[in-house]
User: Fold this.
Amino acid sequence: MEYGMLRRVLAVFGVTGLLAVLVWAALTLSPGAASRAVSAAGPEAALLAETPVVGDSSVKWTVGELTFESRYPSGFVFTAEISSSAGPIVRGRVIWSLAPGTQRSVPFEINADTGQLVAEWQPGPGESTPPWLGLTYTWSVGDAAGNSFETEPRYAEYADTSREWLRSESEDIIVFSQGLPAEVNDLTLEAMAAQRETYRAAWGDLLPYRPRAILFGDLDAWREWQVGQMSANIAGLTRSEWGGTVQRVTGAGERDIAYGTVLHEIAHLYQDEFTFMPAGNWFIEGNATFFELQQYYDYEAAVRALAAAGQLPALLEGTGPGVSGRDARRGYDIGYTFWVWLTDNYGLEGHRRLITLIKEGVGRNDAIEQVTGLSVAEVESRWRVWLGASPTAPTLVPTPAFFFLPSPTPYVVGK
Assistant:
């Protein structure tokens, strides 16, 4: 999704097995914080003993070398040496996850000369993929006798080795930056640590993985991974499939990026993990804005100015303020004040209860009524009065509809 003020795109894919989730957590949730220049190869999990998963238990499976090659920005290649005592390998796939709860796969081919299994993935239209995403992958194969086998999960990274990157890690996040002052990494670690317990209280727990923030300072580097439907004019993307956010840093200070943008985008990952919020409205963007610790200006003051001028729109009746077009930022700010009002009155526990009810399938307004014990009309009134507006939203005058009778004779436009 392209945007000026808007700062996210979400995509949710299929679910991996519990084993992949546990391996991801073991690989990523390491304590402590560290920064270093990024090397060509990312960390890789040790290959554990493989066992057949379907078929004859007497079959002997032999696993030789398993490799992963990043060909950023053009995808990556997996290779494997796997054989069965019951017959040749005839089918299978490589399955990988970029974050728990997501899954992709690609079939492999067999090299007729060497017997090596080769699987290649290249990004197609709409599949733009930034560097430094981590992959947990397995090989799932079958032999001619109908036996099946799956390797233990392994870890690799989609590395960009053509330019210098700085990598920093803490228990909260993994940060990669390119063409930016090293301070941006340090500040991002600090911001995530500062907001850790707020995330935990508001959502009921932390994310089950360490999210990634991939920050570009160079426009050419940013454009390099754009494929198909993507646009180089986009300022940033956040996808739960990636388990992270990718941002092009243009002009805002390092502290604004770390304490504002990154915290906002990580909140979108929490939304995907812990509840269901339809994208692209004041409710979801205002919620993400609530988690920013650095504001580009005083959001609440801007909304109070609207209230004083009699321009505060209705919030809970109808669609509420928009978050696209010329007044996109206004929707973010107004939505933000709703979450401030809610937590001022009902605490972060009220936030957690609200998002839990929505996840359980309760409608937004019904969930708000259950959390507050008030009617939607009373919530709207109290929120408006808190901002200094009249307790009743202004009545919008509908745009008059014009009807035209059909022309009695045919005509050609432009002649």
Observations:
- The chain is about 30% helix and 20% strand.
- Confidence is low (pLDDT under 50) at residues 1-32, 39-52, 396-415.
- The chain has two domains: 40-157, 166-387.
